[in-house]
Amino acid sequence: MFIDAADLSPADTYRLLVGSVVPRPIAWVTSGRDPVNLAPFSSFTWVSQHPAMLGFTVNRRANGRKDTIRNIEEHGEFVVNVADEAMLEALHASSEWMPPDVGEADRLGLALAPSRVIGIPGLADAPVRMECRYHSTTAFSPTGGEFVVGTVVGWTVRDDVVRIGSTGAAGIDTELLRPIGRLAGPRYTPLGEVVELPPVPGG
Predict the structure, then answer these.
(1) CB atoms < 10 A from the CB of 114, how many?
(2) CATH number, domain at 93?
């Protein structure tokens, strides 16, 4: 089957994208103050190695821009929390729409922890928290696709998932982290089997 992108509606395009780009790492973002907003975004990546920069896609709701992007642009800071398998149900529940004056973390009974560098807290139980300063928003689509980029200014990593390499540098053991991946629809996937191959010369 060949599907011509020019013939697709925004909804049809979305269905094909979320079924093709899988699994996706989930950015569980805390933003804003009083209350702190918490929302999951199922498509994020790093866009620069040094300085470390992260980007994630924010689509519009029918009633306008999401609280997350408004908070980030107003306060200039946010935290990307990485959830593990034990946090799946809370992560999924946090995608429900709530009014701007309701803090999703409080509503779901999730503890917040202060950040070390920025003023926005992260999730206390998240095994990885990346504190970010807002860099830019790029709008790609009249239907609301906006790509938000932030510079990572600090990591908080749970001790049991940290691994110290031969050079003394800290890394994160993915198999111990047990991150959650997003699929199409309200479906998720655990890490699954990890296959390690020999390094490729010059790769």
Answers:
(1) 11
(2) 2.30.110.10
Q: Has residue 52 been placed in a domain? A: yes
Segment 104-112 long-range contacts (CB within 8 Å, at least 24 positions apart): 104/37, 104/38, 104/39, 105/30, 105/36, 105/38, 106/35, 106/36, 108/38, 110/38, 112/30, 112/36
Inside any domain, residue 146 = yes
Instruction: Say if residues 180 and 84 touch (Cβ distance below 8 Å).
Output: yes
Is there a domain that residue 16 lies in? Answer: yes
**Residue 149 placed within a domain:** yes
What distance in Å separates the CA atoms of residue 11 and residue 2, rounded to the nearest whole number?
Answer: 18
Domain that holds residue 76: 12-189
Helix (H, G, I), strand (E, B) or coil at 117: coil
Q: How far apart are CA 182 and CA 22, in angstroms?
A: 7
pTM score over 0.85: yes
In angstroms, the CA 123 to CA 128 distance is 9
- Contact status, residue 41 vs residue 58, Cβ threshold 8 Å: yes
pLDDT by residue (tens digit) across 2-27? 999 999 998 899 899 999 999 999 99
Average pLDDT across the chain, whole number: 94
Tokens of 176: 């111990």
Using an 8 Å Cβ cutoff, are 105 and 36 in contact? yes
Number of domains comprising the chain: 1
- The tokens for 146 are 């906006």
